[in-house]
Every structure is written in structure tokens, then in C-alpha cells.
Amino acid sequence: MQEGEINVGVDVSKEKLDVHVRPLGERFTVDNDAKGHARLVKRLRGRPIMRIVLEATGGYEASAVLALGQAGLPACVVNPRQVHDFKKSTGQLAKTDVIDAEVLSHFGEAIRPDVRPLPDETALELSALVARRRQLVEMRTAELNRLEKNPKRAIARGLRRHVDWLEKEIRQVEEDLDKMIKGSPLMSEKSGRLQTTPGVGPVLSRSLLADLPELGTLNRKEVAALVDVAPFNDDSGKRVKDGNRHIRGGRANVRCVLYMGASSAARHNPVIRALYNRLLEGGKKKKVALVACMRKLLTILNAMIRTGSDWDPNFAIA
For the chain, what are the domain ranges? Predict the structure, then answer.
């Protein structure tokens, strides 16, 4: 830690924000609403703050992060699993909101997570619509699975009505997404560029725009690590014989959609198909080969946005 450096931890709940300022030991609580966010900004503005660390909480942190970003304060949202592992490593077993805020400020000081550009209102709305579409699709899948079990006639009728309603809602959300993207020249340009790539359709391009706003601003290793399509070693004891590598953390929502895109690209994209076939011929399992394709596809898309280039079949990006 550099002398005079301040790191702030903010533990987020639905109703309130518990704040710890390290190394000053200052603690305070504000409401998790517009007035509370204004108080938070007022308390922190003008200090030599290196980073303000919040955990991803499924959306409860979004408005606070936006308020901090608009005030020019260096907020960063981190993966809760990373913080949990860090907390265990320090021997901290107790759990309260106050303690969690202190752990977050300590995490910021010790781990020094990157402060990345924060999304604006349009990006947040796009992300919310993408999340809503994902929820509706999951509900439709669940109802269709129930229909496959041949339920009683009255239940089947209700399931079909619900499926019809869900499909209508999905179409409406997709129309809203397309309208929002077309209404933003920058998003429209990026979406069109991404979809010049064989295997990349509207669902993947929307998800990347909404949930990976850093696309095009990072190098290939950084973007792969952010989404976590860079499997890590797990060689310990007997496991060293397995030769397996694992994925953990990262942007799970992006990774799920990217998996489907890579599956399509492995059939229709000449660069990804060549990689996929080469790995299979070399004895790799299909899932391992697909993860490698996900990484390759992501690094290509990242380079396309960074350089402002459409798809080129001669891409040779590692």
C-alpha cells in the first residue's frame, strides 16, 4: 500500500450500504436509495481514494455504482467468491455487514482489483433487458420440460397458456433490445460488427454489449480472464494425473451465451471449426475443445471491436 492510499469497502444489501474506510477505520451506514447514494458520494468525494470495492449482488449494487461513477469516484464491482476466499485466507470467520465492509476494504488494499469504466444508464438498461430475456427463456424451458412429462389435461392447458405468454414476452423484450441498440449509434455499430462473424447472432452480440462493456478495451489475456475462459491448473495430489483444468468465477452469464456461440461457430466459422477439429484430432475432449473455441472466439471479437474491423476469415489470433 502506498502512503496515504485509501481503500473503501461497501457491503451492499437491499435496504442499506455499510461502509468501511481503510486505513482510517471510519465506518458509517447509508440507505441504499438515491438520498443514501448522495450521502455516500458526499462523504467520500475529495479524498485520495484508490478504489471503492463492492460485491456483485444481483443488481442491488447497480444504482450505487452508477452514482459513484457519475461522481468520478473509482468504484469496482468484484466477484463475491474472490472476496469469500480472501476472507477465509485471513482467518476471519465471523460475518456481519460491518465486518464484510471491512473485509472488502482490506481486499481492495491487498488484491488491488482493477477499476474499470462504469456503464452508463443506457448500458444498465440494456443489461437489465438482457437479464430479463434470460429469465423468461429459463421459465419457458422449465414449462416445456413439464409438458414433456404428459401432465393431466387441465395442467397441460395451463402450461401451454403460460408458454404462449412467455413466448410473447420474449418477443417483446427482443424488440425492445433491438430498438435500444438501433437507437444508439455506437451500440448499433458494435452489434453489426460482431454479427459479421460466423456463429455470432443477436443473442450473443446483445449479451456482450450488455454484460461485457470492457470488450475492445482489454488485451486478449485480460478479456479471457475477465470472462474466465482461461482454465486454471488444479494439480494437487492424485489430480495431477488427470490433466484436467477448470473454469471458476468470471462473467458466468457471458460465458453461458459464449458457449452457445462457440458451438455454432465450431460448425459454421472456418477459423473456429479448424481449431475445434484440430483439438479433437489431438485427443482433447469435446468440452475442452469448446472452451478453447470460446476463448478463441472471444479474443477475435475483442480484437474486432478494438481495431474497428469486421470479420476476416484470415484472422490468426491465438
Answer: 6-111, 120-183, 198-318
What predicted TM-score, i.e. pTM, was given to this entire model? 0.73
Write the pLDDT tens digit of every residue in 236-256. Answer: 455 444 555 554 556 788 999
CA distance 303 to 216: 6
Q: How many whole angstroms separate alpha carbon 256 and alpha carbon 132?
A: 15
Burial class (CB in 10 A: 0-12, 13-18, 19+), 166: buried
Q: How far apart are CA 270 and CA 211, in angstroms?
A: 27
Q: What is the pLDDT of residues 187-246, one digit of tens each?
A: 999 999 999 999 999 999 999 999 898 899 889 998 998 898 865 444 445 544 455 555
pLDDT tens per residue across span 39-64: 999 999 999 999 999 998 877 888 89
The letter for the amino acid at 197 is: T
Taking CA atoms, 137 is separated from 169, 202, 203, in Å, by: 10, 15, 12
Reading the block at residue 262, the C-alpha cell is 462457440
The Cα–Cα gap between 67 and 89 comes to 32
Vertex 149 angle, CA 145 and 154, to 5°: 100
For domain 6-111, the question of CATH label 3.30.420.10 is answered with yes
